[in-house]
Every structure is written in C-alpha cells, then in structure tokens.
Write a structure and sequence with these properties.
260 residues; mainly alpha; two-stranded antiparallel ribbon; 4 strands
C-alpha cells in the first residue's frame, strides 16, 4: 500500500501520522458538539484531549508490549518508545483513555457517565477513520487467504508480509466500527440515563472486535494461544451488560416521571 504518502527531501509524510491527526480533529469536533448537546462545557472536552492522548498512547503501547512481543522488548528496551515503527493496541488505548477520563472527571467534579456519553459517538467514528492508517501502513494485517478480495502488499516499507494475499482485516474493521458508530449515533437521543450511549459503544465494539480477530494475521496472545483482543472483547461485552443492568433503576424512574 502507501506507508509514505509523499516525501520532500529527507522528510517523509507518513500515512499513519496524517490519518491519525485527521482522526484526532474529527473526533474532537464531534465530541465537542455532543458535549454541548449534553449540557457540558465544550472546554472540558478540549482540555481532556491532551490527557486522553497521553493515556491512550501509554495504554496502547503497554498492551502491545505485554501481549505481542514481551521478550523482544525485554531484549531491546529502547524500542519501547519507537511507536512510529508500529506496535500499538486499540484496546490498550481504550483502557488508557478510560483511566484518563476517570481521573479528569473526578478532578473537574463532573459526571463521568455524562462525559463518557459525550465521547461515545466520536470514538467508533475515529476508529473507523483510523483503520485507513493501518490499511495503508500494512499494520495489524490479516491472515493469508485466496479469496478474490484479498490485498497484497508490495512496498518494502509496509509492515505486512510482502507479496502474500491477505484478508483485508482493516476493511472488515472499518465496516464493523462504522456500524457501531451508527448504532451509538442513532440511539443516543433515546436513552433516559447517562452512561447508556457509552455502554452501547462498549458492547458494539466488543462484538465487532471479537469477530474480526478470527481474521488477524498475528494477534496479540493472552494465554493458551487465545487472542488477547477476544478475551478483552468478552470482558467489554459482559461489563456493558452489567452496566445496563445497574442503570436499569435509573431508566425506570426516568420513564415513570415522563409518563406521570
């Protein structure tokens, strides 16, 4: 594909960085609009993004190091910081971002659930756009296949195996995450309690990620040769179900007030 979009002298414009920057600004714009609709100050979202980036990057890198190549990084500890060479995990970024959001909302004395709802539509939309970066970079590639829609990387700067037809798992993920975005976007105004949009995202992402992992070329392994992403996906699904159950009394009380 195209890991480098274009080059000016010795300076390379890498597709990964350009798309990640685009994802950041699109997500920030949408989250700001949703925060205003939820009655939150837009400044809260704008201030939070710095902490979200820090927490997300740290979490994403730690996830990759722990579950993908721990022995390699123990032997080459300086490589821990070379994230431009690939090697981040989306689930790790979610966990890192979640920790940052819990800390930030507590510090600012605002509702975590309402704040999470404001971010909920932007996260899957950002993940959808972000998959273009993985597709062009050859990062997080699929298993070999002889299907007619397989993709083959030929650029030696790509991270995927060269000259081998692969499942276009990045496209599978784009489709799955965009469906999650549509689900969150279409249902967000019908929820009668804070936190339900965020739980809808967690459940939808967990389902989508669980199934696409069957097609991933080199999944991060948790234990017993089980992909770590599938383990965490099940945790997200079960956690969201528990969250819906815990918020059920709030929803029922809100419904009674509307009907009375």
């Amino acid at each position: 594909m195209y890991p480098i979009l274009f080059q000016l002298g010795h300076f390379e414009f890498r597709s990964y960085g350009v798309i990640v920057a685009t994802t950041f600004f699109v997500g920030l714009w949408l989250a700001t609009k949703e925060a205003e609709r939820k009655g939150l100050e837009r400044a809260h979202v704008q201030d939070f993004v710095t902490y979200a980036l820090i927490g997300g990057i740290i979490g994403a890198r730690l996830y990759y190091i722990l579950f993908s190549q721990p022995d390699y990084f123990l032997q080459n500890p300086w490589k821990v910081f070379a994230i431009w060479q690939g090697g981040i995990g989306v689930i790790g970024s979610l966990l890192g971002g979640l920790v940052a959001a819990l800390w930030y909302t507590r510090r600012k004395s605002i509702s975590f659930l309402r704040f999470a709802d404001a971010l909920a539509p932007a996260i899957p939309l950002g993940q959808t756009i972000g998959q273009f970066a993985c597709l062009l970079n050859g990062d997080s590639y699929g298993k070999p296949t002889d299907l007619p829609w397989a993709i083959t990387y030929t650029d030696p700067r790509s991270l995927a195996p060269l000259n081998t037809p692969l499942h276009p798992i990045e496209i599978y993920e784009m489709f799955g995450y965009f469906l999650v975005f549509l689900l969150v976007w279409k249902t967000r105004k019908s929820h009668k309690a804070d936190g339900l949009s965020f739980l809808t995202y967690l459940a939808g992402y967990g389902v989508a990620r669980f199934f696409v992992e069957f097609f991933r070329g080199q999944p991060a392994i948790f234990a017993w040769n089980i992909p770590a992403a599938q383990v965490f996906s099940i945790v997200l699904i079960l956690g969201s179900i528990a969250g819906f159950y815990l918020l059920r009394p709030v929803v029922m009380n809100a419904s009674r007030k509307i009907n009375s």
